[in-house]
Amino acid sequence: MTGFDGLKQAIEALAGPDIAVAVQDTHRPDGTLWPEESSAVARAIPARQAEFTAGRVAARQAMVALGLPLAAVPMGADRAPQWPMGVVGSIAHAGRICVAVLARSGPINGIGVDLEPALPLSPELWDTVLRPDERALLAPLEPAQQGLHATRIFAAKEAAYKCQYPLSQTVLDFDALQITVTESRFTASFQRDTPPFMSGHRIAGHFGQHEGLILALVVQRGAQTV
Fold this sequence. Notes:
Layout: H1 3-15, E1 19-25, H2 35-38, H3 46-65, E2 87-94, E3 97-104, E4 110-117, H4 126-129, H5 132-136, H6 143-168, E5 177-182, E6 185-190, E7 202-210, E8 213-221, E9 224-225
Antiparallel strand pairs: 1-3, 2-3, 4-8, 5-6, 6-7, 7-8, 8-9
């Protein structure tokens, strides 16, 4: 089993049924961009072009796994992927790894995935990423664990943000979501009204870890979450 196969299986274990996962190497994506997609990165540096290509190739691999027709995934004016009708999904990158997680829309109306190196979050970013109540939870931890826990909170916020954005079309600051972590799960609680999510609404997610990466995944199933 390659490292990419292992990562794919790790995310599939978090995602549950009716969800497709595809992983691509950003250094060697197994395909090319479609014309509708290429203009988004026409002037980008080669590394960004390769990363973007890997995300779109992975998305189409996931479409095949779901039995869906292949389609372009352009980048919108807000820089978010513009999924074809009937599809919800999320893309994440970390180093040379890119993942796409897709599902048919309907019972599932939101997905958010994030990958982060399993390294401590720089203390310089703590005031930006962490709410005061989240930062207070770091104090009882061993110093070596504080930064790693901060990275987990960061990944959870990224995944929750990606899940909610297609539904709310709202850009959120880090303090708009409060993260509660319990072992391999987390809950993101909205701290202000963000229609269709009201203040206090909670969406739940899962953590995983694979070969030096922290995985965070949120799947919104109608009014419920997993």
